[in-house]
Amino acid sequence: MSAVLQNLVNQPYKHGFVTEIESDIAPKGLNEDIIKLISAKKGEPAWMLDFRLKAYYQWLKMDEPKWPNVKYPKIDFQAISYYAAPKPKKKLSSMDEVDPELLRTFEKLGVPMHERAALAGVAVDVIFDSVSVATTYKQKLAEVGIIFCSISEAVQMHPELVRQYLGTVVPVGDNYYAALNSAVFTDGTFCFIPKGVQCPMDLSTYFRINTEESGQFERTLIVAEEGASVSYLEGCTAPKFDTNQLHAAVVELVALDNADIKYSTVQNWYAGDENGLGGIYNFVTKRGLAKGTNSRISWTQVETGSAITWKYPSCILQGDNSVGEFYSVAVTNNYQQADTGTKMIHIGKNTRSTIVSKGISSGHSNNSYRGLVRIAPTAAGARNYSQCDSMLIGDKCGAHTFPYIQVRNQEAKVEHEASTSKIGEDQLFYFAQRGIGSEEAVSMIINGFCKDVFQQLPMEFAVEATKLLGFKLEGSVG
Amino acid sequence: MSMSMVVSNSYLDSILKGQPQLPPSSTTWFNQLRAHALEQAGTLQVPTTRDEEWRFTDISPLTRLPLRPSHAISAPQVTDVKRFQLDDTTIRLVFVDGAFMPHLSSRLEGSEHEGLVVTDLSVAVATHASVIEPHLGRLAGFENNLFAALNTAYLHHGALIIVSRNAKIQKPVHVLFIATQAGTAIHPRCLLIAQGGSEVTLVEDYVALQDEAYVTNAVTEIALENNARVNHVRVQRDSMEAFHIANCAVSVAHASCYRSVSVALGGRISRYDLNARLEAEGAECFIDGLALIKGRQLADTHTCIDHAKPPGTSRQSHKCIVDGAAHAVFNGKILVRAGALRTDSAQSSRNLLLSARARVDTKPQLEIFADDVKCAHGATVGQLDHEELFYLRSRGLAETAARNLLTYAFGAEIIDRIPIASLKYQLEQIVLEQTEKTGP
Question: Is the Cβ–Cβ distance between A224 and A255 less than 8 Å?
Answer without folding.
Answer: yes
